[in-house]
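Support request from a user on the community tier.

User writes: "When I paste my structure tokens into the form, the page sometimes reloads and wipes my input. The last time it worked, I copied everything first. Here is what I submitted, just in case something in the input itself triggers the reload:"
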């Protein structure tokens, strides 16, 4: 897998690209990864990239579509295959697209079978395709694992943490991350500025593994405790943070830097951003300010480091050998500079705590409306076990306060996402804010 020459990956605009966008214009807003749900959006094709199918069975064109709406300015990737007489397809599991992608990508590659590919359901911001190992591979190739291709739907210029971080962790010998096998870059222009970025990454597929969110939801439905798995997950997250600090060291913070004040500032900024998009959040203004003021009295939190950035149960899988961490892209709505800068490791822990609440709601009988007492108890026990596994002992009061502030930040982000994409689920983050902003809410492991 040698990939294409750099100039062959430069996005260029043709009149045919505009015709393709005309065909796709009404279909795009129906996709889960479309960023401007429920608002008027302006769509503009800024160009396309042709990938060559080695078999010549279809024409493969990767469209880049700019989407502009209030508070949104994104570039989407829309791969299209055209066959005669069957017409147009946008399916990322189309064998012609997959063959073309593999032929163009850089990296060691994998001997996989595009004809037996399957798309993973449930993804919100990207599209992932599982490619089984090629059954007819030679004996020397038989160790090639199955792979998973993630097609980035919203493109960002520059480095992509979902490619760079797993490569660094795998090189450092951490065994709980899927090793990247191939990656594809391209160059495009926005408002006259030429940028480069990643279109996707192919990684090892963890066999016989269970999606963490689906596993937790199924256990809620059956009334099974998640505490054991939550404790081991907390320990894995702690190991991940240790491995990230080794693999991607960050400069020491400036002497005397008040990180408690930084956290308070971050919480206030997140609230202003969220309340602008979701007016229902205005009622929390006084409580958020009270919590932000409390974070300024913290001791010195741990130094910022590289973190996952969007950790939740859907970003981990449980296999016979333990938990694996996936998807280091960070929060899809945040700019890449925010997603790659050093941050508090507790932010990842807060994200997982929020995900446990979501698993209780999705797997529970009442859905987003309300949890039963048993479901609330399931979530509380799982949260305590996760923290026990992560901290390997009692949590200091200053870490408890920082964790509460970070979890409120995450719930505010969720409120914006739900309001834009799934309004009926808005009660889930609102219930979390009601609970977290009550001073007596327990956070420390029991």
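"...and here is what came back when it finally went through:"
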């Amino acid at each position: 897998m040698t990939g294409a020459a750099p100039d062959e990956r430069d996005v260029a605009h043709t009149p045919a690209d505009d015709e393709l966008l005309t065909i796709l214009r009404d279909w795009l807003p129906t996709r889960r990864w479309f960023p401007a749900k429920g608002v008027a959006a302006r769509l503009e094709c800024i160009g396309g990239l042709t990938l060559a199918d080695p078999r010549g069975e279809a024409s493969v064109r990767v469209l880049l579509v700019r989407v502009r709406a209030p508070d949104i300015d994104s570039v989407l990737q829309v791969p299209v295959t055209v066959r005669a007489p069957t017409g147009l397809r946008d399916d990322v599991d189309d064998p012609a697209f997959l063959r073309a992608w593999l032929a163009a990508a850089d990296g060691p590659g994998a001997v996989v079978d595009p004809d037996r590919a399957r798309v993973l359901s449930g993804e919100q911001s990207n599209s992932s395709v599982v490619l089984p190992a090629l059954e007819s591979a030679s004996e020397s190739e038989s160790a090639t694992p199955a792979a998973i291709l993630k097609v980035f739907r919203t493109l960002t210029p520059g480095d992509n943490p979902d490619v760079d971080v797993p490569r660094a962790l795998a090189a450092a010998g951490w065994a709980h991350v899927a090793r990247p096998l191939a990656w594809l870059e391209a160059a495009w222009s926005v408002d006259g500025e030429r940028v480069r970025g990643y279109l996707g990454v192919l990684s090892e597929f963890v066999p016989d593994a269970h999606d963490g969110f689906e596993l937790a939801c199924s256990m809620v439905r059956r009334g099974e405790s998640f505490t054991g798995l939550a404790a081991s997950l907390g320990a894995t997250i702690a190991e991940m943070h240790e491995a990230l600090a080794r693999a991607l060291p960050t400069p020491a913070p400036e002497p005397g830097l008040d990180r408690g004040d930084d956290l308070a500032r971050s919480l206030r900024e997140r609230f202003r951003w969220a309340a602008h998009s979701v007016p229902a959040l205005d009622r929390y203004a006084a409580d958020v300010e009270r919590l932000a003021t409390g974070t300024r009295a913290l001791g010195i939190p741990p130094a910022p480091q590289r973190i996952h950035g969007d950790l939740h149960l859907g970003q981990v899988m449980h296999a016979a050998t333990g938990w694996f961490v996936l998807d280091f892209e960070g929060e899809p709505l945040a700019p890449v500079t925010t997603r790659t800068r050093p941050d508090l490791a507790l932010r990842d822990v807060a994200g997982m705590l929020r995900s446990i609440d979501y698993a209780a709601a999705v797997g529970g009988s009442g859905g987003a409306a309300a949890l039963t007492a048993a479901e609330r108890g399931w979530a509380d026990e799982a949260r305590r076990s996760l923290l026990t596994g992560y901290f390997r002992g009692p949590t200091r009061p200053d870490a408890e306060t920082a964790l509460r502030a970070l979890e409120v930040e995450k719930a505010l982000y969720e409120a914006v996402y739900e309001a834009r994409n799934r309004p009926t689920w808005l009660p889930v983050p609102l219930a979390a804010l009601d609970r977290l902003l009550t001073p007596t809410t327990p956070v420390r492991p029991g």
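Agent notes: The reload is a front-end session timeout and is unrelated to the input. The chain has two domains: 6-205, 211-436. Confidence is low (pLDDT under 50) at residues 441-446. Escalated to web team.
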